[in-house]
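> example.struct
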């Protein structure tokens, strides 16, 4: 990929975005979609149509990375919030609570198999429901 250079104003915005938590980034993305009627998904799909067949071939092979998706908090929401904070220590208490309450949500993306299974065990031990995709 070629490196994109940004002017000072855009670089400042990019630096601020890089400092956001996962939940804050999701909220920003949703806001931009609603405000401007745009989504990052069409750009990503347009950028990689040729790799779709490569991805299909890779799916037939054993997966090495997984997305860990919290599907439900279950009866012990507080325990699940604590487990989420163990998995994502950069989240504050309110951010973790918001993430758990807005399930289904991605906890980890492109996580190695061991890390994904460990996160799944922690959430399920706390009473939550998790899917590995």
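> example.seq
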């Amino acid at each position: 990929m070629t490196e994109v250079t940004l002017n000072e104003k855009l670089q400042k915005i990019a630096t601020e975005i890089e400092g956001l938590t996962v939940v804050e980034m999701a909220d920003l993305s949703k806001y931009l979609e609603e405000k401007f009627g745009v989504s990052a998904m069409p750009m990503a799909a347009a950028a990689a149509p040729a790799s779709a067949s490569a991805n299909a071939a890779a799916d037939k092979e054993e997966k090495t990375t997984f997305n860990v998706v919290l599907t439900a908090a279950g009866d012990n929401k507080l325990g699940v919030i604590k487990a989420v904070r163990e998995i994502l220590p950069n989240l504050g208490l309110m951010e973790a609570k918001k993430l758990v309450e807005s399930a289904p949500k991605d906890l980890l993306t492109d996580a190695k198999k061991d890390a994904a299974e460990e996160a799944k065990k922690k959430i399920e031990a706390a009473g939550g429901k998790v899917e590995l995709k």
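> remarks
DSSP finds seven helices and three strands in the chain.
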